[in-house]
Amino acid sequence: MSNIDDFKSLWSQQPAPEKPDPGVLISKAVGLRNKMRSKLLLANLICLATGVFIVYIWMNIDPKMITTRIGIIVTLTGILAFVLATAGILQPLYKSREQSSNADFLDQMIRFKKGQDFMHKIFMNIYFFLISAGVLLYMYEFAMRMTWVWATVCYAVTIGWMGFNWLYLKPKTAKKQSDKLNKMISELEEINQQITD
Amino acid sequence: MTFEEIYQAYWPRVFRICMGYVNDHDWAKDITQETFIKVWQNLPGFRNESGIGTWIFRIASNQCLRQIEKQKRMPKAEMPEHLQEKTEVTDDKKIGFLYQCISELKEMERIIISLEMEDMKQAEIAEIVGISEANVRVKLHRIKEKLSEKFKHYEQYR
Description:
The complex is a heterodimer of chains A (about 200) and B (about 160).
Chain A: H1 4-12, H2 22-60, H3 66-86, H4 102-145, H5 148-196
Helix pairs in contact in A: 2-3, 3-4, 4-5
Chain B: H1 3-22, H2 25-42, H3 52-65, H4 91-103, H5 107-117, H6 122-129, H7 133-157
Helix pairs in contact in B: 1-2, 1-3, 1-4, 1-5, 2-3, 3-6, 5-7, 6-7
C-alpha cells in the first residue's frame, strides 16, 4: 500500500471520541479566563497591601536610626519582587501568537522561553540582593546597642547564612530552572530547523 | 459561521490532526479541547483574512507544537505487539499503524502530512506552516516516501 488515497481513506476512519457539549467547553474557557483575571487581581492586591504595610511601618514604628526603616522597606520590596515574578504576571509581556503560522509561533515561543530564562535570573538577583541588603540595614541599629562581640557574632551568622544562600542555594535553583528552559529551547530550535531544512 | 457550527464541522478533523501528532487518544482529545477553547476566545477577532479552516488548523497545529511544554505526559503508544506475526491484518490495525508511523515522524513532518490527509491544499498548508508552496511539495514527497516504505515492510511481515 503506497497510494496516498489509501492512506487518506485509512486516516479518515480513525474514530473520533464523543464531542463534549459545546456549553461545557465554553464554561471551561470562561473558567480559565476568570482564573487568569483573579491571578492578576491577587497580584494587584498584594502590591497594594505591601504599600499599605510600608506606610503603616513608617508611621507607627519609631526606630532611632533611618537605616532600620530603610532595611524594612528594602526587605519588603524584595519579597514583593519575588511575589510578582512567581505570580506569572510577567507572562502577558510576551503575548502569544497562537493564530500565526507555525514558523512564527515557534520563533515567538523560542523568544518567550529565552526571555523567561533571562527574567528568572534578573528577578532572582534582585530578590536576593534586596533581602540581604534589607536585613543587614535593619540589623544595624540593634547591633549598635550590643557589645562588639555579640554584634560581630550576629553579623557573622547572618552573613554566613546569606553566603550559603548566594553561593549554594541560589545557583542550584537557578541551574535547575535554567536547565529545564534550555532543554525546551533547544528542542524548539530543533523543530524550527525542520522548517528550514 | 457560528462557534457551534465550527465546532460540529471541525471537531473530528482537529482530533485526527492531534492524534497524528501524539498518537494517544486522551492526549489528542485534550489538545482538541484546548484548540476549540482558543477558537472560541479568538473567534470575535477573526476577520476572514484566511479561510476558517486554515485559521483553525493553524491554532490546532500550534497547540500541538506547544505540547513540548508538557512532555512529562506518557510517551507515544508502543509498536503493535504482533507486528511480526502473520495474523490477518484488519483495517483497525492498519489505521493504528498509520497513526503510529505518522507520530514517529519529525514534528513538522507530522503536521504537514496530517494537513495533507485532511485534504488541505498545498497553498493552505504553506500558509499554516509558514513556508513556500514549493517547499511543502518537496517535504510532502519525502514524507510520503517514508510512509510507503514503512507500509511496505509492514505488509511484508504481516
